[in-house]
Amino acid sequence: MKNGPIYSNISIINRAFRALGSPLHRDLIIDFVRTHWGNGRGLPLEEAQNLVKLALEAQFYYEKASEEDHFSRKEVYCKELDRLYYNMQINPYPYQYNSRIMNLTMSEIYLDPRFDTISSDDGIIYLVLSEWNLLNDLVYYYMVKNNIDKIPISDIYRNVLSKYSIDDPNAYFFPKIDPRFQVNRKQIVSLVEKNYSEAFLSVQVTDYIKEKVAMKIPIIKQFVMDSKEAVKIRYIIKRIFNLQPHQPLFFPYFEAIKQIVPLLQNNLFLVNDDSLIYSASKELPKIIPKQRLYGSTNLDIIDLKVNELDYNINNQTTSLKQKDQTSHETTPLVKRQKLSYTLRYYDRIQETLAAHYFKDWIQNGYLKVNFLDGEKITPMIIHYDEKNNVLYGEHLSNFMIDYDLEPGQKLEFFLKDDHLYLELGVFDEKAHTEQMKYEDLAKLSEMKKLGTKSLMQHLAELLMLHPSGLHIREIVRDIQEDTTYAESSIRNTLSSYPFFEPIKGKVGYWRFNPKLWKKQYMELENNIKNNLKSKSIPTLRQQWKIKALASTKTKRRLTNEQFKQLPKETFLSLAWDYYSFTIYQYAKKFSCETVPMEDLYQEAYFALHKAYEKYNPELGGSFYHYFRRHLFARLQRYKSDNLSLIRIPTHRIETLMKNDQIFEKQLITNEKTNINILDSDYILFKTNYISFEELYSLYDDNVGDEARARIYCYFNHPFYEDTSLKRQVFIDYSYIEEPEECDWLLSEERYEEEIENRVLAESAIDYLRNIIKNPRDWKIILYRFGFMTGEEMTLQEIGELFGVSRERIRQIENKALKHLKKCPALKGANP
């Protein structure tokens, strides 16, 4: 078979110096040549040593370094190649070497670091730029695998880049210099031969590559776990080792992963020879005791009878067992090719499959299956429990849940190209009806444990276990062993239900007829349902608070290295967990009656996505601080947009907030107001277009009378009597009860006195805050005078809170009062 163009040995050694630096140890150069020879096909160790030895010891292109057994490359830029280098950059295509035309030797080309040489089977040498990477082998493999006969060069080039997610701008496909391809005048490429060479797969895997793969196994495992499905090995190599399929080192790493992963007990499995899938070692399934619909068969008695029969005829003919053994010895074992499996009731509730049907396909304690859903193929790993003879696992459980499988569903298994495939078959209604009767038996058994079964259910359970029937005396005796029902009640119950029927020809015998059984007989009574205990589930806000408090204990942060290495979904999930306290704080801060906390949490998630998209770790700074700025801005904007029932523009909100602060200050200090109060946006900003009754009802007794009083006076003050300001909101004040303790708001003298006291208190707090530098002393003052909790605390209470004596609290209080006497705002007043 014809081979594609390959790099010369000098060019490969030059690439080693260009990739690994200079000087280099001899062993590193040999490993590089072993893995890169033939565009990734590899070279045996002895041949690589001979090639490197000849090139290095000639000391024409390389020279010995000061360190032992180290070499450096000689580089000489040839001016005659400057024009060729410029032309090949503009028009990327290999240049055929001709010593007569170029007047240059190969030695001069090898010394120039801008060029490499490749050669084909016909012996023609081509010059290529050192930064180019060839796609010829990858295109050949793609066309053979997909049975492509003819295709335009531009299309196949585009398809390969898209298929293998190659983003290398220096990756080129040159079919005209490759004897495996044929190109016509219309630039349509076709294959000369369609035999895929085995040599292409026999790559050389060095110990260094195996060590690199082994070190990255935890990261590979985490990457596959986060994907939650099978991951192509080429995606893993590109993501973790930063190698693309057209690069020579890609194939050694591919083979190393295939060799190492199956040897490790890390729940990673190789599927379809090109993908990895994670399957957790789930706990063994809980096997539920099966209830027998038609009684149970004693297999030991059957074996005993067979052995007796076999012993009796032993003198006349060969025993049955010997015949069976002989037939198995002479008949070759044939591997099962297909299986139609009907899902049973206990398979579904245990999320298992009966393993004895799959004995031919189970290998190394698990079963590999490819589920076919249309054109989509989903690999699954199903574990084998030899003790209980069942197949189980996370993939099997998710498969049953995702496709909502029910008893009676047919599962079609078949072998194809040594791979096991699974398809969903038809749904068997008859099998479903038969299997769902086991559900009724299971409910009867559960009711027996809870002590909630009725007499009818007791009788049904008893007769189900004896399909041949029981005499009325036996029924009464068995029922009265566990219950206190009278014989007359038992007889009446047997005669009341159609599924209890007497056996013809046997006087006094009754049996259970499952064909007449109906679901309605299994419904629980209302009083039983009311007695069932229900577990309390925490609300959504409680869950957020618990998660936020838990994150404060760990105090974990994400680093820039994690931002670069982890997949997007994994990083965002970790960030949402680690920064949940910050998210909870901001959401609680910006939430109000019109902006619920649930909406703010949704906006926080959008802010996290936006921060991830725009964050650049190279600019410095942590992702946490960058995300916090985005979070604050997003929540602030969302609140301003949704604060009113009718949205006010954002630039107007900021202006209205500033004007409102100025207006409140002017009202408190009795200054002349300069703001246009008739502004419709201002009225909307203050009242939000809701009636007084609605606003008043929002403030319950827990808020306090002062807040309710302010609302009352806000709507009843003469200043607001103009109907144009109220936007036609008609209020019937006769139905509104005036709140308590609001006389000071209605009385002009008491209102001015209260406002003056509050202004003095704020001035005193600001003055003390600048004087007292100790944070603990400052908190003590706030607790003592009621600024922290709203109520003044005693010396004893504050001392117990901070772990100091009452005398120390009194000294701090006296010190603060002395400072207040010097406050300019309190001159002439009694603090």
- Biggest β-sheet: strands ordered side by side in the sheet: 16-21-22-18-19-20-17
Terminus-to-terminus distance: 104 Å
- Beta strand %: 5-15%
Output the number of helix runs. 38
The low-confidence runs, each spanning 5 or more residues with pLDDT under 50, are 197-201, 317-321, 326-332, 524-535, 689-704, 714-742
Describe it:
With 831 residues, the protein is α+β, with helices and mostly antiparallel strands. Helices cover 49% and strands 12% of the residues. The strands form seven sheets. A seven-stranded mixed sheet has the order 16-21-22-18-19-20-17.
Features:
seven-stranded mixed sheet, alpha+beta, 831 residues, four-stranded antiparallel sheet
Task: Give the gist of this structure.
By secondary structure, the chain is of the alpha+beta class.
Spell out the blueprint of helices and strands.
Blueprint: E1 6-7, H1 9-20, E2 24-25, H2 26-36, H3 45-58, E3 62-64, E4 70-73, H4 82-90, E5 95-96, H5 99-102, H6 106-111, E6 115-119, E7 125-129, E8 133-134, H7 136-145, E9 150-152, H8 153-163, E10 171-172, E11 181-183, E12 188-191, H9 207-215, H10 217-227, E13 231-232, H11 233-240, H12 250-260, E14 268-271, E15 275-278, H13 299-312, H14 320-330, E16 338-342, H15 345-350, E17 353-354, E18 366-373, E19 376-385, E20 390-392, H16 394-402, E21 409-416, E22 419-427, H17 429-435, H18 437-450, H19 455-464, E23 470-471, H20 472-482, H21 487-496, E24 500-502, E25 509-512, H22 526-531, H23 540-554, H24 560-565, H25 568-578, H26 580-590, H27 597-614, H28 623-642, H29 650-668, H30 680-687, H31 692-698, H32 705-716, H33 723-726, H34 743-746, H35 748-771, H36 775-784, H37 795-802, H38 806-821
Helix pairs in contact: 1-2, 2-3, 9-12, 23-26, 25-27, 26-27, 26-28, 27-28, 36-38, 37-38
